[in-house]
Amino acid sequence: MMKLSPSRLATLVLAAWLPLQAQAGLLEDSEARKAILDLRAKVDAITRDLTSRLESKSDKTVQLDMLNQHEQTMQEIARLRGQIEVLANQISRAQESQKQLYADLDARIRKLEPQQETVDGQAAEVLPAEKTAYESAYALIQAGDYKGAATALQDFVRRYPDSAYAANAQYWLGNAYYALGDYKKAIAAQEVVTTTYASSAKVPDAMLNIGSSYALLKDSKNAKKALQQLVSKYPASSAAKTAKDRLATLK
Questions:
Q1: What is the 3-state secondary structure (H, E, C) of the chain?
Q2: CA atoms within 13 A on the CB side of 170
Q3: What is the pLDDT of residues 101-150, one digit of tens each?
Q4: Do 218 and 202 form a contact (C-beta atoms < 8 A)?
Q5: Domain named Outer membrane lipoprotein BamD-like: which ranges (predicted)?
Q6: Which of 18, 37, 182, 195 shows the greatest Cβ crowding within 10 Å of its Cβ?
Q7: pLDDT higher than 90, residue 97
Q8: What is the CATH topology of the domain spanning 117-249?
Q9: Torsions phi, psi of 143, nearest 5?
Q10: Which residues contact residue 250 at a Cβ distance below 8 angstroms, ignoring those fewer than 6 apart?
């Protein structure tokens, strides 16, 4: 039997009822009322019978529909699980990429952020690039590459004149010139230490280097002057002790 929807059932009942109602208009009122009542009773009986049949048939149909819906639901769940697994893998890869990105970004930021360092016993904030540049230049001094060191140290003090390493770089620049035999440049470089970086711990050594450079230039007058100033201003320094010994040899 074909399954009828409630709306379809109402349409059939109405189609059966309307012609009879039209016929009732041709009869006397009492007869019409009676005919309508009889018709309504028949329609109700037909409706109950049809409904009963439909419900009986629907029980089986509902079971089949439920089975079909269950199968479709399970298929949909399997499909969604597959999508969830794909999305979970994508999220996992995205999270891993983000972690790597944040790690790289953090490393880059750290390269730009000042780091706490101790320079000549004093705490100071130093940029990582700044520290690397100074250490690379100083390594050239240690390796005996004084020409390369002079170039690197010159570049350093030009780029980082306010660095915590600037006084040391300037001092080692003077030493590089001294080692190269360019005593005039050595004196000029060390005088920057004694004036621009007057509070640096390297000042006594810079003054000693100035005196020694003048002596090698055969300028005894300025050599004595520089060494005497060193002894006078920094008498307790190791540089002052060396200066006294050199003063004794100067004529």
A1: CCCCCHHHHHHHHHHHHHHHHHHHCCCCHHHHHHHHHHHHHHHHHHHHHHHHHHHHHHHHHHHHHHHHHHHHHHHHHHHHHHHHHHHHHHHHHHHHHHHHHHHHHHHHHHHHCCEEEEECCEEEEECHHHHHHHHHHHHHHHCCCHHHHHHHHHHHHHHCCCCCCHHHHHHHHHHHHHHHCCHHHHHHHHHHHHHHCCCCCCHHHHHHHHHHHHHHCCCHHHHHHHHHHHHHHCCCCHHHHHHHHHHHHCC
A2: 30
A3: 777 766 766 666 778 888 887 888 888 999 999 999 999 999 999 999 99
A4: no
A5: 130-251
A6: 182
A7: no
A8: 1.25.40
A9: -80, -5
A10: 215, 220, 223, 224, 227
Q: Look-up: residue for tokens 């597959």?
A: 82
Q: Do the beta carbons of residue 153 and residue 169 sit within 8 Å?
A: yes
Give residue 232's identity as a one-letter amino acid code: S
Q: Residue 46 is encoded by which pair of tokens?
A: 């037909």
Q: Where do the structural domains in the chain lie, given as residue ranges?
A: 6-106, 117-249
